[in-house]
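User: Sorry, folds how?
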Amino acid sequence: MLPNVRAMELCAIAREKCVTENYILEPERSLPVRKVCDVLVVGGGPAGIAAAIAASRNGARTILLERYGGLGGLATGGLIILLLTMDDGQGEQVIAGLCQELVDRLDARGTSVQPEPEVWGSQDPDLVEQYQRWGLVWGRKPAVVRYAVAYDPEEFRYVVNDMVLASGVELLFHAWGTRAIMEDDRIAAVAIESKSGREAIRASVVVDTTGDGDMYASAGVPFEAEEVYPWLWFRMAGVEDADNAVRAAGHGVFKTPPGEGRILAPWGAAGRIARQISAIDVDDLSYAEIECRRMVMEEAERLRREVPGFERAFVTDIASQLGITESRRMAGAYTLRREEADTPHPDVIARTGNWTKAGMLYDIPYGCLYPEQVSNLLAAGRCISVDHRVHHSTKEIPACFATGEAAGTAAAMAVAEGVRPGELEISRLQSRLKNQGASLGV
């Protein structure tokens, strides 16, 4: 068949108009709507897992969108396989709810390690040293035993898959939420990219649990951004006498489930890699992936060469995701600040301690989870509205579970009541969260 010459000429003219040295103008196109739901959760890390489960258990038709092929984010793919922490450092549990349900399920399968409640807050040096070897005690002296948990990442994936699917959530893997499609002051749909092409999902409420605030940034919500030193955690097996090997290796090498002879090494941070990076810049991310992986292998070789017990050890896995601790932080309806530590908030929807400072406690107000500019958007996880210092506490996995559970519950309630998330009656949201097992202190 001969080509349509006129059509080819028109295409050539269009290309001339659409392509310049610095820009390419995309032609308008219609995005097929792949799915419609009440609540769309974008990002399947700890916050997204909790948000999706909470939304679905509260009656909302919920979709959880995840760009990789498994749930957990940094809690699995990042090999940051420590729940730091679920207490205040003084013996009181401050994070419960879905995070505690996860721990109970891991414990029932014999795939987690955590101190018993009666020793939380203890300064007994033998107990402190015992749990330090598992990576469960951090911070300056005097160190105390914390309610923190070490676990196996594949067991974590197995358990949360079951929790998510049993709650009725529809999971969509290998799909990247690329931008919010706005209609006045609300997100009408989220554009997604996948092997199926560019499509859209419509939702009444969108929960941004991307970690980097991708949805709220594309919706025009203001934010602050930080550059960080990247981490790349790894595990080794074949370690002889792991207890003594970990002692000999010093700070930064821990025992890890499951079984004997396994260690976890949280490699990275300042002084290891040459410069900080932006987690929203692909050139920086590419540099960090290459450099960190090279240096992980150097560190493994050093351990084999210098530390007794590592002579026959070998790398079993390197994290598939960089350990990024911070990028965007939303400028929400309320911004929680460092000076508000240990200050009760009447509109608290989650609490968290600080994993390195025993005795510090933050009440997280509901206003940290939603912006004023977009009427049907919530955020949870490390990208919520807090300052840089508070972020050190709220970025941790248990805190992300807690804010995720609050956001998912709020999203479902807003849909059921036909109101904007920011219009919810706080006392009713708090009552619902407490009935679900969340610890609010009110």
